Amino acid sequence: MSTSNKHFAPLARLLHWLMALMIIAMLFIGAGLAASVSERHEWLLNLHKPLGIAILLLVIVRLFVRFTTHQPALPADLPAVQVLAAKLSHVLLYALMLCLPLIGWAMISAAGDPVMLSSSLQLPSILAANPSTFAFLRKAHTYLAYLLFFTVLAHLAAALLHGWVRRDGVLESMVRGKD
């Protein structure tokens, strides 16, 4: 295998780490929002909305990059159950990165609130205002955010297992470029 086959494309690595930072920030911001209903935290909501839309747009770009660039192979000696877990966890991560912003957008629409990205940029509502729909989507958004949090922790644990225990190059394929 050549060196170029052992690493993700530079754009894929950039998107991975940028989105990792954004998602971790979103999880903390979301936790802050869930912990308080105070209007003093309006600034968190004003940060949460555009960051969520940015994640939605970036995950679309990231999926395009993933399907149009080379992906390094997993180690040949990786047990089949771990290969399956890796593939399923990546599908889950991408699904959550797509669904959570869309559900958040729908939730705000169902609340009857404008989806403001800035003081002058408003997204169209994607659902009619409906308190029951809002309540359902709020719970769904919360539970899926918890699922994302635990999936990110599992992803991090797997990366550290590959980097520190197995030392099989999987972590380096996303951390470093070509040697």
From TrEMBL:
As for subcellular location, the record says:
Cell membrane
Write down the species.
Pseudomonas helleri
State the GO CC annotations. Answer: plasma membrane
GO terms (BP aspect): respiratory electron transport chain
Cytochrome b561 bacterial/Ni-hydrogenase domain residues are 8-177
Transmembrane spans? 14-35, 47-65, 91-111, 143-165
User: Which cofactor is recorded for it?
Assistant: heme b
Q: What is this protein called?
A: Cytochrome b
Which one of the record's GO molecular function terms can you name?
heme binding
Protein family (similarity comment): Belongs to the cytochrome b561 family.
Which keywords fit this entry according to its UniProt record? Cell membrane, Electron transport, Heme, Iron, Membrane, Metal-binding, Transmembrane, Transmembrane helix, Transport
Grouped into one coarse class, the protein's main location is: membrane
Membrane-topology descriptor: Multi-pass membrane protein
